[in-house]
Write a structure and sequence with these properties.
139 residues; alpha+beta; five-stranded antiparallel sheet; elongated
């Protein structure tokens, strides 16, 4: 895919969506190993249940990583200037997350032509899990 340019992008343009497979225990274990986030609430069913949860659930930073993947499949990582998220819900085992983005503004920032992108990850029921935005420089 050819990286976007400032002149080729319009407000309202959507990034190609990223559809993920349902979250599994393996997904959580692999992310724990890669990230160093070994919080037992994400990998130990007994611990999660004692904490009042029905089972383990995805690490918040895993969801943020998926949104980062959406962005960097659209534009090179070197063009990312800001990336902020708000965690809005828990991603449980079996949730099939879909990450989407939409250009909401074209602007100049620190002498660079940029776009502001709204981001959203939602489960298969359309429930928001993470919302955010990014600032991407497009020459």
């Amino acid at each position: 895919m050819t990286p976007p340019t400032y002149d080729s992008i319009q407000v309202g343009d959507e990034l190609p969506a990223l559809q993920l497979s349902p979250v599994t225990r393996t997904t959580l274990a692999l992310f724990a190993g890669a990230s160093g986030d070994h919080n037992p609430i994400h990998i130990d069913t007994d611990f999660a249940r004692r904490a009042g949860m029905p089972d383990v659930f995805a690490q918040g930073m895993l969801g943020m990583a998926w949104l980062g993947r959406l962005l960097t499949q659209w534009a090179p990582p070197s063009q990312l200037r800001r990336f902020d998220v708000r965690f809005q819900g828990i991603t449980h085992l079996g949730h099939a997350v879909r990450c989407t983005g939409r250009v909401v503004e074209k602007l100049e920032h620190d002498g660079e032509r940029c776009v502001r992108v709204e981001l959203l990850s939602a489960n298969q029921y359309g429930q928001a899990r993470i919302a955010g935005e990014a600032l991407v420089a497009l020459g």
